[in-house]
Design goal:
The termini are far apart. The longest helix is centred in the first third of the chain and has 26 residues. The strands form five sheets. Strands 1, 2, 3, 4, 5, 6 and 17 form a seven-stranded mixed β-sheet that branches. The chain has a five-stranded parallel β-sheet with strand order 8-15-9-10-11. The protein has 14 helices and 22 strands. With 477 residues, it is of the alpha/beta class. Helix 1 runs parallel beside helix 9 and helix 3 runs parallel beside helix 6. It is 32% helix and 26% strand. Bound molecules: flavin-adenine dinucleotide and 1,4-dihydronicotinamide adenine dinucleotide (NAI). Its cofactor is FAD.
């Protein structure tokens, strides 16, 4: 007979949604358990997503700077600068291990019981944890967790491309792309979204010739159009080749090469491409395999998402769902916010996530970051707006750092001058967007921001100046 344990709350999945929910719940006094089958906490984000990709982005950027910019910056490096892929991977693994281990420590500190094993619904009040082969510390026998409340945070997985077989060697998903053993001479990418452009940047800096095939006529699907086309320009300058409005018909590995057939959507013209590695990055889909959600009759929509109401409830109010496995953008910080709010609903009966204020960041160089409405969305909604723009070329810190590509673009309501959207391409745009988020959350006008004293010389002065430009005139441009 399976062993039985009781908890106030059982969270299935330890990604940014699940682990944050579990810690918050324990802090609020719930006897909380978290079930994870991967063997390491942190989910997609820490293991095969945000963290390893940023480790590679950071170090490939350093390499590129040392190789191509050091001399002009007055740094002489004796001998050639070269890449040691094994060490690059080791540095990445060290960051991942430290952070995933950190979550286990936080679980201990906050009193969250951590079960390593596969979680599935036995019924609406019981989660069965089954042993997972090869996972160190996995439960050794089936364990039943009787739970007053359950939060499902099982995340997402790579969307497969029908007919293309991923071997994680020559034809890879993001997971394989994060662990290549050598730098491919030619890297082809299906999908000009965030994964394609970030991973493309890593390998382009390390010396790959990168070609991106994108179905839509623009890259970065949800970006403001002007920002997307500026982004495309800087990536092109860095050596990217783009085939937009192009669909992939097939791709096949033949020994050490991958042959790809593509077709222009408008003209129907076909073309054959050859690459050493092909990255398939056409999106992610919700993951509920083996969860047994169907046994409970939990509703799943056409896109595979678990259906919930605005309080994260399934048809059972004590079973909530958060993160990538349900509606909304598939972002770590969105999952985290939902984790907190779902637990607050359980404890207090109310919680809050402002879906109109979730930032997006693409960690290329320069970075691209945005929050709130794009120009296209404002036009479609019939809202009249004014634009304030300020280029980093006119920002003293960016000039000093010789890192001045990009601009800040602020969209404000034409009448009230309230900020509606912020779009930044530039160094550290991902940090700067937090200021825009704060302004949006508190309903600031452009003038409110422009009247805040910003330290000099900082990149954030560009944000202030763009706000000034939105309702009046900038000083330095
Ligand atoms: P996940 O992180 O997917 O975690 C779910 C966990 O549940 C997994 O560990 C899984 O093993 C476990 N699980 C599933 N089913 C079961 C079960 N039945 N029993 C036990 N455990 C189970 N987002 C950002 O915001 N910023 C970024 O820079 C960023 N970079 C990314 C880069 C890449 C290459 C990828 C692929 C994604 C990136 N993302 C990024 C997206 C981000 O990783 C996800 O949005 C985030 O991880 C979602 O969190 P989650 O908790 O919903 O799910
Ligand atoms: P994505 O949705 O960002 O981009 C996929 C792209 O592929 C789109 O531009 C789409 O038009 C294109 N596409 C789809 N089908 C195609 C086809 N058949 N042929 C050619 N192009 C096709 O998805 P991506 O890049 O795979 O990322 C998955 C998720 O991970 C995203 O939701 C993203 O939010 C998250 N992520 C976030 C990061 C960040 O915040 N910095 C980094 C990496 C991923």
């Amino acid at each position: 007979l399976a062993e039985k344990k009781k908890h106030d709350l059982v969270v299935v999945g330890s990604g940014p949604g699940g682990y944050v929910a579990a810690i918050k719940a324990a802090q609020l006094g719930f006897d909380t358990a978290c079930v994870e089958k991967r063997g390491r906490a942190g989910g997609t984000c820490l293991n095969v997503g945000c963290i390893p990709s940023k480790a590679l982005l950071n170090n490939s950027h350093l390499y590129h700077q040392m190789k191509h910019e050091a001399k002009q910056r007055g740094i002489d490096i004796s001998g050639d600068v070269s890449v040691n892929v094994a060490q690059l991977q080791k540095a990445k693994d060290t960051s991942v291990k430290q952070l995933t281990g950190g979550i286990e420590m936080l679980f201990k500190k906050n009193g969250v019981t951590y079960y390593k094993g596969h979680g599935s619904f036995e019924d609406e009040n019981n989660i069965k944890v089954s042993p997972v082969e090869g996972v160190e510390g996995s439960v050794t026998e089936e364990t039943i967790l009787e739970a007053k409340n359950i939060i499902v945070a099982t995340g997402s997985e790579v969307t497969p491309f029908p007919g293309i077989k991923i071997d994680e060697e020559r034809i890879v998903s993001s997971t394989g792309a994060l662990s290549l053993k050598e730098v491919p001479k030619r890297l082809a990418i299906i999908g000009g979204g965030i994964i394609g452009l970030e991973m493309g940047s890593v390998y382009s800096r390390l010396g790959s010739k990168v070609s991106v095939v994108e179905f839509l006529p623009k890259i970065g699907a949800t970006m403001d159009d002007e920002v997307a086309s500026a982004t495309q320009k800087f990536l092109k300058k860095q050596g990217f080749d783009f085939k937009l409005g192009t669909k992939v018909l097939s791709a096949e590995r033949n020994g050490d090469v991958v042959n790809i057939e593509v077709e222009n959507v408008k003209s129907g013209k076909k073309e054959s491409l050859e690459a050493d590695v092909l990255l398939v990055a056409i999106g992610r889909r919700p993951y509920i395999q083996g969860l047994n959600a169907e046994k409970l009759g939990l509703e799943v929509d056409k896109r595979g998402r678990l259906v919930i109401d605005e309080q994260f409830n399934t048809k059972f109010p004590h079973i909530k769902v958060i993160g990538d496995v349900t509606f909304g953008p598939m972002l770590a910080h969105k999952a985290e916010e939902e984790g907190i709010a779902a637990v607050e609903y359980l404890k207090e009966g109310h919680g809050h996530v402002n879906y109109a204020n979730i930032p997006s960041v693409m960690y290329t160089h320069p970075e691209v970051a945005w929050v709130g409405k794009t120009e296209e969305q404002l036009k479609e909604a019939g809202i009249s707006y004014k634009i304030g723009k300020f280029p980093f070329m006119a920002n003293s810190r960016a000039k000093t750092n010789q890192d001045s590509d990009g601009f800040v673009k602020i969209l404000i309501d034409a009448e009230t001058e309230r900020i509606l959207g912020a779009h930044i391409i530039g160094p550290n745009a991902g940090e700067m967007i937090a200021e825009a988020g704060l302004a949006l959350e508190y309903g600031a006008s452009a003038e409110d921001v422009a009247r805040v004293c910003h330290a000099h010389p900082t990149l954030s002065e560009a944000f202030k100046e763009a706000n000034l430009a939105a309702y009046s005139k900038s000083i330095n441009f």
